[in-house]
Design brief:
This protein is an all-alpha fold. 89% of the residues lie in helices and 0% in strands.
Length: 99
């Protein structure tokens, strides 16, 4: 039965491989090339899944923000109409006082 390595060891091995290459990493850490390839494959897949999850999360956040913007635009339009009405009312009452 083969040796069991921690996730941290695997992650560091992959990082080291990026710095010094596969052959040198295998030699220095005394691990099999097959193991390192499997760890790399798993790491790439994990990163891809995480990226997809983050992308989905951003899409959800963007949709929520777009809805909020629409709500705020409606509220802004309503307030502009109210302001116009109040300005007209103020002019009307100001005009009737001057008579």
């Amino acid at each position: 039965m083969g040796k069991i390595y921690t996730k941290e060891f695997r992650a560091e091995a992959i990082k080291l491989m990026g710095e010094i290459g596969r052959k040198e990493t295998v030699k220095r850490l005394k691990i099999s090339d097959w193991s390192l390839r499997q760890w790399e494959k798993t790491s790439v897949q994990s990163k891809k899944e995480k990226s997809e999850e983050e992308s989905q999360s951003w899409r959800t956040k963007m949709r929520d923000m777009e809805e909020k913007i629409k709500e705020l635009e409606k509220e802004n339009a309503r307030m502009e109409k109210e302001n116009e009405f109040l300005e007209e009312a103020a002019r009307f009452f100001a005009g009737s006082r001057q008579k």
